[in-house]
Every structure is written in structure tokens, then in C-alpha cells.
Protein: SFRICE_039886
Organism: Spodoptera frugiperda
Amino acid sequence: SHFRDVLHNGLGMTDAYMMERVMVALDRGTSPHVTMATFVKAMSLYLRGDLEERIQYAFTCYDLLGEGHLRRETMYQLMKKSLAKASRDDDVEEAVKVSGEFLPSL
């Protein structure tokens, strides 16, 4: 889609899974297409959104089930996916385990 092109070319987003999460979070899956309203909302957030709005939106992208909280397993999978891009598999597993120990304190 053109919106994915904007995310990739304009904002440097390369992860197809996260691009999908961005689209779903913007309109909560009401349409498989990006409407003009959704596009304007996204551009407004990226270009003019304050820190609180950006944090809330990022949380919405990661709140896969729309529950208002993030499950430990969700965080584990997201961290693993994020760290996997830069490391070997055994390093990723160890880094995620160590990072996961800090989750309860957050």
C-alpha cells in the first residue's frame, strides 16, 4: 500500500510486522485500507504529536489484544524480535532473558 511506502521510505520503518501494527493501531482494524482520515491522523502524530501522544500511540501498537496492558510473553516476543536483528541467536536469547528480569520492576 502507499501508506506502507510512506512508513518505509519516509520514516525508515523496515519491519513489515511493525508496519502492520502501526496500521492496525491507527484505525483499530476498521478497514484494510488507509483512509484519508487515518493518513492525516498518522502524519499529525508523527509531525506534530507531543511526547505523551507518541508514547500512547506506541503503547497501542504493542498492545496486540487491546487490553490496556502488555503481557510478559508479548514483551518477550517483541524484545526478541527487536534484538534478533543485531545479534546471533544465542546472544538474543540471553539478552531477552536478562532484560525480562527487569520487566516486573517497571
About this structure: Residues 36-48 form the longest helix (13 residues). The chain has a mean pLDDT of 76. The chain is about 70% helix and 0% strand. The radius of gyration is 15 Å.
